[in-house]
Inverse folding.
């Protein structure tokens, strides 16, 4: 892998808590800071294109993600994304057959102690380097085919579709 392209769309992984508003807002992308602090042994470039909760992403946003990736020469792509509509975006990105694209996110903000963000990012980084071209989702310690996975909202995890 010459370089890892990272495209950020927002989602829980980048959320921060605002005491004065008593709610969460999507903040700056966290992945570049995290990878720099970990002193990873590969080059990466972060393109932040959206700062939205995935429930607010629409078809135009998904096309923007697809077009942004398509316009880059990089063949290894990691997308940080909210978990609620990650599968829908992955299915759109599956049209980019000449690249290995892995989407990941977090069920709690990266800034929080005990967040699954670093683990999911680590899984995604390993997956994007070792899998053949295609589009995948890396969540909960597994790598999923977007056509065969769903988010179980009640259990707050991803699971296979039979």
């Amino acid at each position: 892998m010459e370089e890892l392209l990272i495209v950020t769309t927002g989602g829980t992984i980048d959320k921060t808590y605002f005491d004065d508003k008593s709610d969460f807002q999507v903040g700056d992308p966290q992945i570049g800071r995290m990878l720099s602090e970990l002193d990873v042994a590969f080059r990466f470039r972060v393109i932040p294109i959206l700062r939205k909760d995935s429930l607010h992403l629409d078809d135009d946003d998904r096309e923007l993600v697809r077009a942004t990736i398509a316009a880059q020469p990089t063949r290894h792509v990691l997308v940080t994304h909210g978990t609620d509509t990650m599968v829908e975006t992955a299915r759109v990105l599956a049209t980019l057959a000449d690249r290995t694209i892995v989407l990941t996110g977090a069920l709690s903000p990266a800034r929080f102690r005990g967040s699954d963000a670093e683990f999911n990012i680590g899984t995604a980084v390993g997956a994007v380097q070792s899998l053949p071209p295609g589009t995948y989702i890396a969540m909960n310690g597994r790598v999923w085919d977007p056509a065969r996975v769903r988010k179980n909202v009640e259990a707050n995890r991803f699971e296979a579709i039979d």
About this structure: Strands lie at 3-10, 15-18, 23-26, 43-52, 76-80, 100-104, 134-139, 142-144, 149-152, 157-160. The chain has one domain: 3-160. The radius of gyration is 15 Å.
